[in-house]
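User: Teach me something about this protein's shape.
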Amino acid sequence: MSNDFEVGIVGAGPAGSCCAQVLGEAGIKVALFDHSHPREKPCGGLVDNRVVEEFNIPKELLQNEIKWFLAERFGFRAKFSLKPSMYLTARKDFDHYLLQRTLENKGVAFFDEKVVQIRKKNGSWLIATNKDRHVVSKVLIGADGCPSLTRKHVSKPIYPQFLAMTVGYDFPCTTKYIERTFPKNTVEAYYSRKYMRKIGFIWIFPKRDSINVGIGSIEEGKKLKNSLDRFIQSHPAGKRLRNLRCRLFAHLIPAVWQQEFFDLQCSGDDWALIGDAAGHVNPLSGIGIYYAMKGGMLCALAYLEGDLHRFEKYWRNDYGGELYYGAGTALRYYSNLSLFSWFQSILKDKLSRLRLERWPPDHRPEVGSASLSLDVPPLVQISKRSNTCRPPKTYLEQSTIQYG
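Assistant: First, the predicted structure itself:
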């Protein structure tokens, strides 16, 4: 096999696989590197309906349809409806499916090897792996998460203050136990300074035959693990898991809380950054799978059109407003200043449901609309959002959600 390729992609997660798939289908010779498959992640595998609809995800990979979001904050619990639904997947199966779908293209060569060195020579990128393989590519695309080796060579590393540690447990159990113990079609989130001092939350994601429980925050991994253990031992929601065996996972993700970060370029003449390597994760919810997959596709489209710089315009027009909005409101959302907004969101939801109960079930209108703002939990915001993203300045004003 020749070691000369048109495009070299470091990382075969959702971003890298989707990018390689589009390029491979167009006849581009692609080298795809990733040593971590098969792998599981503590992120929980929550995806919104855009992932399922735009990327033709098989129903077999969707382990639980999520219609409700149960949140606890400031000592109060509230349950919000998610319309359209979101879905839970097992990242091990989800990522494997995307990779195998990509490898159906003969032009994509997959190397189950770790990239250890990247350098530029004579106008080309030289990529070296831990198995002493040396690949030459005209274009380099970084989809290697964070911290990203690729990013170090083409841009500035993501600053430590914009990195969050996620620590999670996967609890294998029977479907009957999940149905008996956890609310149906519901994910749970717990916001408390008792378990983390900075921005972040604890989540509980019941899947088909396992329960994913994790914590994410801009704190040390050891502290987060201890906090998650305390939550499981002491909180009523966590006590449901005490007698189950589990597997521990940990992972870094971007958690950007300054809008200026997203002004940085994600592409150049012969390079691009996508997914977590680009910092494209929602700062409020920590969700990034859609941005990774769509970003990978848009990056490939820009390359096929002959100008990688177009990727900047494409991702900003598609989902950039969501990232700018999240970065601009993250600190305020997770501060005590949002106490009033939290009570306001509960009241709005309750009033909407009371009004709906007066209508026959088959004729209930959509009521209780409200501007997208801090009084709505992050997951609810994502589930209500349309595929078209407005520019940052007008996005908040034009987007709405519907309760009920």
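Now, about its shape. The chain has three domains: 4-41+92-159+257-330, 63-88+161-254, 334-403. Confidence is low (pLDDT under 50) at residues 355-359, 361-374, 386-404. If you'd like, I can walk through any region in more detail.
User: That's plenty for now, thanks!
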